[in-house]
Amino acid sequence: MREVPYNDIVDTVARLCMEANYFLGDDLLTAFRKGLDVEESETGRDILGQLIKNAEIAKNEQIPLCQDCGFAVVFLEMGTEAHVAGDIIEAINEGVRRGYTDGYLRKSILSDPVKGKNTDDNTPAIVHTTLVPGDKIKITVAPKGGGSENMSEVKMGKPADGIEGVKAFVIDRVIRSSSNPCPPIIVGVGIGGTFEYVAFLAKKALLRNIGERNPDPFYADVEKELLAKINDLGIGPMGLGGRITALEVFIETHPRHIASFPVAVNINCHVARHKTAII
């Protein structure tokens, strides 16, 4: 059994919170630049150019990419041969507290959903934990903004809906979202499992890098088809018209009950923040 110091978790999470908010992934910057080559709208091209400049300023000055610094969503892969000297959830929350305070990141979390006040440190985090073989701990911090999260949805479909029903639901959700999630967007899709698990799948899908296809060729083709159809809608960058409405569509699946057909869409804005470290 490998012992992992409590403060290693705290320090890592604090760093990831800041890095995720300051540094946009190279995959997204590459996608913006490729978008400039295919965007037909002059306004759309101007917006994409501004997004690139915004990312450069945030990186160089180490300031937030967006004024909404997000809910701290943490994906934790815990090796069964690793042991943290203390409560790992407390360590994660202390890391979020330090990261959002020391990094001058906007705090947006209420202590109670109806009657609470701002916690003033962006805690508690949402932590999704998976046990994996080995003695390593993999931590991914994925701050999620409220605007794009509000455009997400779960549908308990009928088994007869099939994949065409999934496609129709995804396209409809994007149309109804319009400019609200600050396109160009990344669309995470979950299929299968249960009511709560399909939403997790859709959010987990957002952790992939641009161009990283589902390993199943069937779903990889559906991802590509949906991306093309979404970019034919004409919503465009920031909803002002154009071809680059979405940068990617990612699908994650899980076995389902024969009587139900859960589908979830979790939309991310163009600031698709996620940073990972392995301890």
Walk me through what this model shows.
Helix 2 (26-38) runs antiparallel to helix 3. A four-stranded mixed sheet has the order 4-2-5-10. It is globular, with a radius of gyration of 19 Å. Helices cover 39% and strands 22% of the residues. It is an alpha/beta fold and 279 residues long. The chain is built from eight helices and ten strands. It has helices at residues 6-22, 26-38, 42-61, 88-102, 146-149, 162-177, 195-205, 217-230; strands at residues 2-4, 73-79, 82-84, 126-132, 137-141, 153-157, 185-193, 246-256, 261-268, 275-278. It has two domains: 2-20 and 65-143, Dihydrodipicolinate Reductase, domain 2, CATH 3.30.360; 147-271, no CATH class. The mean pLDDT is 97.
Keywords:
279 residues; alpha/beta; Dihydrodipicolinate Reductase, domain 2; 2 domains; four-stranded mixed β-sheet; 10 strands
